[in-house]
## 1
Amino acid sequence: MKLRDDKKTQQVFDAALGLVKEKGLAGITMSAIAKEAGIATGTLYIYFTNKEELINSLFSECRKASLESYFRNYDAARPFKEGFKTVWTNILKFRIENFEEVVFMDQCYHSPFLNECTMKLTKQMKYPLFKLVERGKEENAFKQLDTFLLLTFMIGAIHEGVKNAHYSRKALKKTDMETMFTLCWDGMKQ
Amino acid sequence: MKLRDDKKTQQVFDAALGLVKEKGLAGITMSAIAKEAGIATGTLYIYFTNKEELINSLFSECRKASLESYFRNYDAARPFKEGFKTVWTNILKFRIENFEEVVFMDQCYHSPFLNECTMKLTKQMKYPLFKLVERGKEENAFKQLDTFLLLTFMIGAIHEGVKNAHYSRKALKKTDMETMFTLCWDGMKQ
DNA sequence: TTCTTTAATGAATAATTATTCATTTAAGTT
DNA sequence: AACTTAAATGAATAATTATTCATTAAAGAA
């Protein structure tokens, strides 16, 4: 009995991400994905029941990777500013290094592909970040403002910064990151 | 001789924007647009040579409307902070009131539809904003940092704020806007 | 080695979507 | 009113894309 090739799923994901980055969601087809992944079109249907499921699976995978990266090296026992900067930097770096995923996820939000379940799970994603900002308020590091507004502010600056860095085709230097962090921190700080 | 109906172009644009907001770029078809606009599919091809041109026209229209809104009521003779707040508020309000356009434009950036010309023109869009931020630096209102980083920071916070307000389904209150402006200003100020 | 099972293939089919075109309709001109 | 011209229509066609399926290939079990 022949066994399924575990590497194939990842090949398909990589192929799909590459295509989305180039042409957007509206530009990817099952045959293009198969070709890019180096497999036959029919093989896609062994690993995914259809295009919708392929996209939802990939989205979930991206969301998971994204989420997992955020709190890497975060130590709640350390001072708040240090921890906040760690998370802030994790988010920025993840988005720079995984720009394809970011583009894909952005495009999916307004697509006919994502199902209810995928959508719902995604909303829960921000909860740990929410708690982090709350901690900042509790410790009087941050202004006593609506947590969602603060969180949105922080996230927005990162998202746009990454997009801009990407399209201007110059890598963000370490000093740029410091600058961006300072802007964010100064905005939020008490 | 029958004359072209000038209202039709706008009807088509409205229809397309509505559909994009619901289903994304990947979800709109020429027949769906026609149906939504209340005209026959063939009629679309009288006003636009094909789907690509339709989308590029709509994109240009949206970009123009967006750009025109930014400096409404801006008076360079008034103090910087006042002028900056005017522009900041204009951008925020435009994006709230024209959320469909915003979604459409976002989706277009990574689509196979936008042509070179449309892309290029779009990049020039931010120039007046760039100059505004430069003025802030010259008057020592803003930190002496890279103008692009400052601009990106400002824009990012607005973009994300609007998205969030929309998806959380609660209208931004006047106080929320004040809060958001303060966060932005405090981040950028000297 | 032979058998069995499932992965893999890619051409064929089904479904969807863009585009065309013969025909009709409406508006302006003579 | 009769004529002319271009808009409008929507069914038909072309093009593209998703999905299936008969067939082959590969890997483990007997």
## 2
Amino acid sequence: MARRTRDDWTGVALRALAEGGVAAVAVEPLAARLGATKGSAYWHFPNREALLKATLERWEREHTEAVIEIVESVPEPLDKLRLLFATVLEHVEDSAVELAMLAAKDDPAVEPVLRRVTDRRIGYLEELFAELGFDADVAHQRAVLAYSVYLGQAQLLSSTPHVVKARRQLLEETLTAVVCRA
Amino acid sequence: MARRTRDDWTGVALRALAEGGVAAVAVEPLAARLGATKGSAYWHFPNREALLKATLERWEREHTEAVIEIVESVPEPLDKLRLLFATVLEHVEDSAVELAMLAAKDDPAVEPVLRRVTDRRIGYLEELFAELGFDADVAHQRAVLAYSVYLGQAQLLSSTPHVVKARRQLLEETLTAVVCRA
DNA sequence: CGACCTCCATACGGGACCGTATGGTCCATT
DNA sequence: AATGGACCATACGGTCCCGTATGGAGGTCG
């Protein structure tokens, strides 16, 4: 039988995480998916928590900066914001990992990752709003506001998608609202 | 020993739900809290799912219309919206049940309740934005937008509260953004 | 070719929870 | 006082998961 690497395990764990949440990152079901047994898992990781931690940190490495880099390729800050929302709300489908993390915010393996990712993203949004000419404190409020819209919309699209009608138009409404003066 | 009613069970279940999510609505731990045993639970409910369902429907009855009624006591639609956001974001602390439901959106007992509550709330928001003079389709978009802000902010406040700085000011920023023209 | 080391299968003993079975207690009724 | 029903404790078997113990297959290196 084939050997498995640490990445094989975090790989299936990532898929399970997206599909079934943190609770689905369970050694025995993952072993079944891999066609292996728990022996392999407990060889590569000391326990289930370590596997989960490695999985979350892999996701953090591979997904946090990616979007920012894409967005930074355009010059105008307003276009950056539009592209950001567009990218992130087009395939909300695969922001399932984020929702899984929010749903398990009290898990000791989740909490620090969630904190880092949230800080990074809101920090970046603050920069964008500062570029748009907002004062520092207002920029922060708008950043929190914008990120709230993203989180809420992701939740809606995954839990009750029928309430969201015209996504393209919603995107524009969101933009105008978020950059609105006075 | 004292007798327990159906409401005693949904009562502890509600507290457990807010504290530990849907998974915490488990018969044996709840029985321990009540100073009872599983025998009582399985007398009042056919199974765990029925207990969960009854708990969610009790929450729906007691919390969905309450806020709307409060808000409807003021005349001006903009003040309604302000009061709505204020009420709902002041004690975000006890919107824990909502987050628990979102986190368990795939549970067959959760799904229908979540659908009804979401539809009702967004429907009401649509009315408010229509009163504010927005066209029907725009009103719907704003309603979805406003509800997204609420959901996202509730998530932020419960998962990473440190990113939210001045809640009072954030409320005003949110309002001006959401009712912004053009 | 034998000693080792890496990786994993197998097998086991927990623990938490679900649901059932059974009998006992208290209370209202007759 | 006896009977029946509402309510619950106890005890049990079953499932799913965690984590450990142990040994074995396959490659590596002297």
## 3
Amino acid sequence: MVSIKDVAKEAGVAISTVSKVLNNYPNVSEETKEKVMEAVNRLNFVPNQVAAALSSKKSGRIALLIKLNMKTQAIDEIDMQYISGAISMAREKQLDVITVFYSMIEKMSLDEMRRYFASQSISGIIIFGMNNEDKVLLKLIESQTFKIVVVDSPLVNESTSCVGINHYQAQIDVAEKTIKENMCRSILYIAGMKNSYVTEEKIRAMKDLAAKRKLKLFIRNGDFSELKARQLTFRYAKNKDIVVCASDLMAIGAMKALIEMDIFRPVCGFDGIILMGYVGKQMNTVKQDFANVSAEAVRELNRLLNGSKGRNVRLPHKLVRMKYEDIIC
Amino acid sequence: MVSIKDVAKEAGVAISTVSKVLNNYPNVSEETKEKVMEAVNRLNFVPNQVAAALSSKKSGRIALLIKLNMKTQAIDEIDMQYISGAISMAREKQLDVITVFYSMIEKMSLDEMRRYFASQSISGIIIFGMNNEDKVLLKLIESQTFKIVVVDSPLVNESTSCVGINHYQAQIDVAEKTIKENMCRSILYIAGMKNSYVTEEKIRAMKDLAAKRKLKLFIRNGDFSELKARQLTFRYAKNKDIVVCASDLMAIGAMKALIEMDIFRPVCGFDGIILMGYVGKQMNTVKQDFANVSAEAVRELNRLLNGSKGRNVRLPHKLVRMKYEDIIC
DNA sequence: TTGTATGCGTTATCAG
DNA sequence: CTGATAACGCATACAA
């Protein structure tokens, strides 16, 4: 393995000079800079990130904390998009990424968790799918031990940013569009999980929308479960004009139930997963660009690591109808 | 951050002694071993893997090399299962995992690739979705610079193992079962990509099966594309008795085409992706446990890292029919 | 502007 | 069986 020492020898300068050139230090003459870069290219040198991390204590290593859905693989695409988006951006920003699943840390205490990440030389964490029952994570965020970006949860402090689409507005947009298209008066809203931050946002959106348009709103928790949405639909949809769902998976469950009941009600979903194109009926939904959300999260984390303070970052969303013809390839 | 030095002080021994205890060296007395472990627990010490990697040069860092499907997210679940299976097993085996996508390295030369992995202190690599046009990867394997496990490609040498199900047998099993159930005489086989290792295996299986049962076999490449399978079905399925597909996605494309053609032909797929449960018609398919395949790959890589020689590892498969009722939750 | 020296947290090689 | 001590590859305060 060719090291910085080899480069130094090749260029005829000191190790520290090479290091300075590589890290864009100001006080280096153009001349030596060139000499060094030539040597770097000639030897095809790539800095050892592990050693750099150990030495500088800044590491540039970040962790992706992901909550794997154990129940269905139908929405694995969401996590996959998160991962790939993050890794791409991380490479651009020269960050090293490790992927961690909730299951690996869920039984840890705050201290154990801190040590775990510290032992990996992690300096920044991106948290996906967090809800307000993840007490230890909450404490981790409050402790400000690490720079953290939380996706889709409104947690912000000096060292913590949140990124995500505007769930409130997105929920209003998709529901309002579908309501207008079908002239509905009463709504069955199948919400997500009670302890999820976005669920509250979306419920608030639906309430505001119902008030504004003077609609009857009937809310039940579907827990992001397709089966539960199916059951709720069987039970409550008949005397409603529309079924609004907080996720595509639930929308699919609702739609399939309606077909079995042999009645028609417009249904709209949320997320824009590919599965929506396969269920036969088109539905309005909110298209989130998960890879982009995740890439933005990395970008924001990088900002935090460079000393900026936490903030709230909102990303755009789109309304779409997913058709089989459009998604196959 | 509490380091090995703190532990040594706490236990009243030398740093090197602590290291020996932690790494299960033989020549340590039970007594000191206990003292050290007590100190470790008292301080809640976790070894810094980055430092360990740097020092030992053995690293225990492995890379997952994954070919992201850019066309459709319908099969993201496969990669996701690969990733989660690998990470879980890696944690068990105390290995550090980084995820790398083909897109990040596809333009590299052999040397660049070597240096890239070396710079990350990677000592082992698991390659998913490789085909025989990945020339640089082939050379990387031949060079034996790293311990490598290849999933689903029959590449083995001193430092390289391959793992995966028996695609030949699995293809025979699922096709034969479907043929028996429907008394077919002529087959449309929609194969995968020409340059894929498994494609050859499966075609061989189909040929052997056709010969054995005296069936007419008509083969076309579907390139794992749903759209292409759809077109091939429109074109060729009418005068065949059955459509056998090398992937579920193609099977879905074929089935949807048949429905539009308003004719019935039994269709069977391969992989067991969740989407199969959503298309309305049940089909036979081969269920691969991707997470398990991946976990096995990590286990095998760990063996290689510990000095064992490369070998061929075959994993079991199952035949299933995926029903909507069974997969929702 | 450049070079020297020290340390990051481990592992590993020797003495003792 | 245990303990100094030298690497590992790099960053950085400080000296030149």
## 4
Amino acid sequence: MANVTIKDVASYAGVSKATVSRVLNNHAYVADDVRTRVQQAVDTLGYHPSRAARRLRANSSDILGLIIPDIENPLFQSLVRGVEDTAYAQQMNVVLCNTDDIPDKQKVYLRLMQAEQAAGVIVVPTHPDDRAVLEPVREAGMPIILLDREVANFEVDTVKVDNVHGAYVATRHLILLGYKRIAVIAGTQNLTPGHERLRGCYHALKDMGVAIDESLVKIGNFKIESGYDLTHELMKAAHPPDAIFVSNNLMTLGALRALHELSVRIPEDVALVGFDDMPWAGDLNPPLTAVAQPGYEMGQQAVQLLLRRLAQPDASFCKIMLQSRLIVRQSCGAHLRGHNSP
Amino acid sequence: MANVTIKDVASYAGVSKATVSRVLNNHAYVADDVRTRVQQAVDTLGYHPSRAARRLRANSSDILGLIIPDIENPLFQSLVRGVEDTAYAQQMNVVLCNTDDIPDKQKVYLRLMQAEQAAGVIVVPTHPDDRAVLEPVREAGMPIILLDREVANFEVDTVKVDNVHGAYVATRHLILLGYKRIAVIAGTQNLTPGHERLRGCYHALKDMGVAIDESLVKIGNFKIESGYDLTHELMKAAHPPDAIFVSNNLMTLGALRALHELSVRIPEDVALVGFDDMPWAGDLNPPLTAVAQPGYEMGQQAVQLLLRRLAQPDASFCKIMLQSRLIVRQSCGAHLRGHNSP
DNA sequence: TTGAAAGCGCTAACAA
DNA sequence: TTGTTAGCGCTTTCAA
């Protein structure tokens, strides 16, 4: 009933607490018969060491903090699974925190992880200026891995996706398909993915010799409503676009909804390519052409980076850049206009 | 740099550790000037109490374990947010665990929660026979709240949805719209939602005087492939259905994919109604008619139940049953056949 | 190869 | 109103 402690095991097995501890932690210099006797005691008593006590002793835990904006975003879902599966295989436990991109929440969670003596944290930072909050945490001895987004003036292990290239490929794809008025719904510009994706767009337009019409560039905030509103703006204009590149999944969903409401045919009237794939992107109306980010691998890599940092606290900082890839379905009109795929 | 402890604060403020502790925990009988002096010391030193130590002392924590099958399922996403938001407001911290419906994983996580001295766990159990794993945990003093599914012979606080009624309404909706050959893709039958939803179907068919064609009843396992495969089976048969009720979101996605592959028009050739709504259900092709479960509220209620149990450990067990509601979009064909909605 | 003892940071009697 | 002290469960010297 009451909790079984190491003391109970010790007296049951007729040895000292120290010996039980040694058995538990696989120390050398324990007689075989003693070892088995202790094991039996542990089993019959159903003993499990108190993590609180261990943590107090060791001043660290096997907890891995994972701080993300929002679990309802499909990208972060696969990312979380990548982190969890990898951590689980290493006997680490993941504590998931949603910041909703609110810096204060992020601060609270970072503090929590410190207080919990987490082994380290993997963070998708809320803001490029987050250095002020992150640096003290690292100074206090907790390894930090940044994921998906970067923070200004903050050298740190990072896993990200080549946003510029992804957006470049998507935009070029639209150009090659012959669209003339390509609009872009960009994301929050002071988030790395936001401006990198816009830059990728611009690069492609320039490289392919397409003049940039600034009235076709809208800056959103990565949320559904934003995609919805900006699409309305775009389509209500005197010269609406014939194709739209949307910078993330949520805004793409908003764009889709707006276009349906306006009874605009996709891709006949307007073609659509989104950044971020979703498991059900092929079931949307129409099946969505999208730049797929390797969310699961991003999670995996982040954990690997953390383990490396834990093993070698003084190793130099490392940035891992993963590739995205374009998945051509129907919203871009490739099936109508032929395959000029990149 | 090094961790600031209560001792540091005490000596900085020129008082004893006990006094610092009293200030920290808002005890009465602390002189005002002492209180402020300690507060200042805390602030300037940037002190945060060690949770490990507190936990060791108190033999319990403010951690709430949330054990679900899979975060990639939209239902569990809103559920998680409901739990997190509610717990957060109560200063509790949520540790999320995905079992993938694998009993062994569930066992590991339950053990982890015990070792972490969680205040309680909210569990979506993997199996109706899970009593053997769950009961010992509760016996050991940890409150358990069951969510979404029930466990045989295990009296416990539970939050669930009225699956029978939800399926009933969905099926009746199809009957009222005039469909004659209504198929059902059911879920795992030894999971409560699985057989309850099938029962709801049967009830509706019987009540409305529709003969049951057993060849139109398929038992799946709640996963995408299952919905996909069974839809293929259904449509390849000599007498395919003119409507399908699918028992959860993932299988509905599979069904949708299969129907598209077969170039079956929805709802003209086959109507479709799914259990579980999804944020983007309206963007699917066609917009999906679905039974919406109140995932967020389920999460909220589960936390409330846990708090109640924590406050009154001996209160009698309580079962909360939430209603689902039918959201009529286009996949059921209501817009073509007129509004015979329930 | 084993045991005794100290101490991790905190809180709660008990005393003053 | 405050300080002293013991102890939560564990690991790790140090000594035997």
